[in-house]
Amino acid sequence: MIASLTLSGAGTAFAADGAPASDQGASPAATVEAPAGTAAASPLVSASAATGTFSYDQTELTLNSVIKDVFQRATSALCGATDDFVVANPLEWKLAVTGEVDNAFTAPVDELASENSVKQVMTCTCGGNPADGKAIITADVKGIPVSHLLDRAEARDGVNTVTFVSSDGTELAMPISYVVGRHGVLSYEINDEDLSASVGGNNQLWMTRTPANYFVRDVVEVRVTREEEPPANPGEDMTYPNSPNVGVLAASVS
């Protein structure tokens, strides 16, 4: 990500190197008188406008041991999760896609992953995490795209809402356009290990630019519906001090 930094210095004065003091010394309030008809020599110089660039990225991966220490201990607050339901092999965990679809199905994670699986670096943070706070991680996330589940189930025209149902009965409804537009995936590996080594659980919804309390875990059902009024986008009308995958695009000083 590249950002431009513009410094508008016209008219802004900076102190130059001081001239040698006179034998008598000079009072801080003293003024310099110029001969009649000449301009007074100014001890200040003006900086011309300058433009520069800087760059940064968020590719430094957080160790799973750190993720486990920071996030797994507070999953009920950060990730909308309650109890862990860890199975011997998370790839055997079954997902059902139901609702207004022409091909409702239930399939194990490994079968769905063999059909379509993506791996991408993503960032997860608590919405209330302060600047320079610890509740933010960047990880290499591997999972099944929610868009693939919708395509496989043949979602009907006009559907606008997707509800994720966890194994403990927790439900979270969001606009389909939001989840797909934020590259939503049901992850089953983080940094090449199953979730028990990091955030806990068997699977977890990850999305870009979304606070972690919407990252539901242990999803067993994905329900697709058409609502007269679809749910609001996560975090709409809320101000968070820290938001993942957001940085300075431009700044200026005048």
TrEMBL record:
It holds the Pfam family Oxidored_molyb. InterPro entries: OxRdtase_Mopterin-bd_dom, OxRdtase_Mopterin-bd_sf. Keywords: Signal. Residues 1-15 form the signal peptide. Residues 227-254 are annotated as: Disordered. The keyword Signal applies. Gene3D superfamilies: Oxidoreductase, molybdopterin-binding domain. Residues 89-229 form the Oxidoreductase molybdopterin-binding domain. This is Molybdopterin-dependent oxidoreductase. It comes from Eggerthella guodeyinii.
